[in-house]
Structures are given as C-alpha cells and as structure tokens.
Amino acid sequence: MGITRKLESEELSERKAFDDTKAGVKGLVDAGITKIPPLFHHPLDQSVQASNLGNTNHVVPVIDLAGVDKGPGKRQEIVERVREASETWGFFQVVNHGIPLHVLDEIIDGVRKFHEQDLEVKKELYTRDQMKPIVYNSNFDLYSSSTALNWRDTFMYCIAPNPPKPEDLPQVCRDILLEYGKHIMKLGILLFELLSEALGLNPNHLKDMGCTEGLIPLGHYYPACPEPDLTLGTSKHSDNNFLTILLQDHIGGLQALYDNTWINIPPVPGALIVNMGDLMQLITNDKFKSLEHRVLANLEGPRISVASFFCTGLKATPKLYGPIKELLSEDNPPKYRETTVAEYCAYFNAKGLDGTSALTHFRI
C-alpha cells in the first residue's frame, strides 16, 4: 500500500524467524533471555514516563452506572457524564456495570491459562488468517508495521455477528470466553444507548446503525520484560472500531495521550475502561474523541488484559459509515468521507501501529 517504509530484507527475515517459532514473546521469556532482541527496541520517546504530576484535572473520569434504569433524572445525570467524558477524553472507567466480579476474575484467569498452556497445543492455533474462529499470534502487524515490535502476544475470537461454535474455542478457557462475551454485549448495548442519548439522538440510534453488530474480544498477554525501558507492550495507537471495553488486571501500564501528555490509567478494582474508537470519532464528526493510548512494558508480569472491540473487523458488509446526518449543519459540515468497516480495518491493519492515526486517510 506504500504507507510504511519497506522493511529491509534482513529485518524481514528476522521477523519471519520469530513468527516461525509460533511461541510469541512468551517463548523468548521461557527461553530465559536477559536482553531483548533489537526487533523490539523502540526509539526512546522523550515522554516515556507518564506525567500525571499530581494534576487532578488529568484523571480519567470514573462513571458509576448504578441506577441507570431507576428513572429519568439519574439516567440523565449519567448521560451527561458520558457526554462530557466522550467529548473531552474519549476514555472513561465504569463501575457498577452489572458484570459480576467473579466473571472478571475468571476471564483474566482464562486468558492467562490460554497463553500458558502447553506450547504444542497453542501452536495449533497460531495463525495470521483473521477469518479463523480463533486467531492467536504475536504482533498482528508483524509484516506491515515499520516500527519496532511490541512485547505482547494476543488471541482474538468473534462473538458477533457469527457466534463461535463452542468446539472451535480452546478447551482451557472455552466456557468463560462465551460467558464473558454475553456480558460484554449486554453492557455494550447499554453504553451505545447512553452515547446515542449523549448525542441528542434516540437511544437506539447507534445500535440501529449497526454499531453493536460485531464484537471481537482480544486476550492480551504481556510477559515480564527484562529491559522494559527499551520497548513497549503496545505502541501508540487509537482503536479501529466504534467502542472498546477493556478489562485490565492489577499490574497497570496503560497510558492515554491527553493534552500532549501521557497520563497513567491505573487499574480500579472491578472497573472496566471504555474508550471511543476511530469509527466513533468518524460518525460523530469529531464530537467524540478516539484518544491515542499505549501500554508500557513492565518488569512485573505477565500483565493480562481483555479488550472487547465493537466492530465487524474485516468481515465484508456493504454498510457505509460517514458522519451522522442528524449531527451535521451548515456550521458543522462532514469532515470524513463514507467508508465500510472492512475498508477502514484493512487500511488500519496494512498501516500497522506506526504511531499515526488512520482517520487522516478518510478526512475530506
């Protein structure tokens, strides 16, 4: 596509050798490395350390969803908080979201069990074919990104539009993957209602547009890193979807780029992080922000997180998405051209996590 620098043949063969192990970053750690391979060396970012500086204005909002269905007054209060957080941050945490704590604990445990199961079993699922029922690999953009690799392994599976057959999911975490997917879909529908209302639209507007049509959870595994200052768990990016609901364990490392400053998003027990994706910014014509974020590598580990993407991904669907007509006016003309989700995701994936926004490509 000509949108990233061409990888040198030597680097390409090193990446292929890493890929061929099918053991991911965890395989490097299991082999006892004390120095991380140059493939993972990121240029030193001048602002690698978070700059919270005790500034209480720079704390991601925490929104309590308790009582959201207990009458219009309370709901309106929550909608207002969601609107404010989505416009200013594009990130917020939710508590009292209705998902039992034991389910959150079990999905973290399930993701850990998947990544720590016998390598020969795991290798069977290692693939770069995104249409498989479960896709396990390290660095989805291994062959397309011009930047250093990330210190992270991932598996993803699709809950909607085509629910997986239970037998297609790994036995070690099958039941919890299915259960968690059901809970996240229910919470997602509520969040899209609140976001619709925050835009001044009918509660079902975003759902009727197809924003809840696709749901793809990703189980991330960030092994302890012997040289965390040289690499990143996930490099700077914004998400290629409508909405992400993220569960992170207790270790931390997630940062959001707010006001040109990296802000820590510390784990809040029992909370889930919600962030707008690029497609949400596109359809709201920049009203809601898709904030760039990253994950630091860590001496402690493994760090486990589950990012649930509301998006149909690369699955072909003819539906076109552009700025919502009801939000446009003479003073607020469309800033983006229409695109399909598959076209957006294909462009994003080909570009890789190179630190630039894919949204720029779709601006009018």
TrEMBL record:
Keywords: Iron, Metal-binding, Oxidoreductase. GO terms for molecular function: dioxygenase activity; metal ion binding. Residues 211-313 form the Fe2OG dioxygenase domain. It comes from the Eukaryota. InterPro entries: DIOX_N, IPNS-like_FE2OG_OXY, IPNS-like_sf, Oxoglu/Fe-dep_dioxygenase_dom. Its cofactor is Fe cation. Belongs to the iron/ascorbate-dependent oxidoreductase family. This is Fe2OG dioxygenase domain-containing protein. It comes from Acacia crassicarpa.
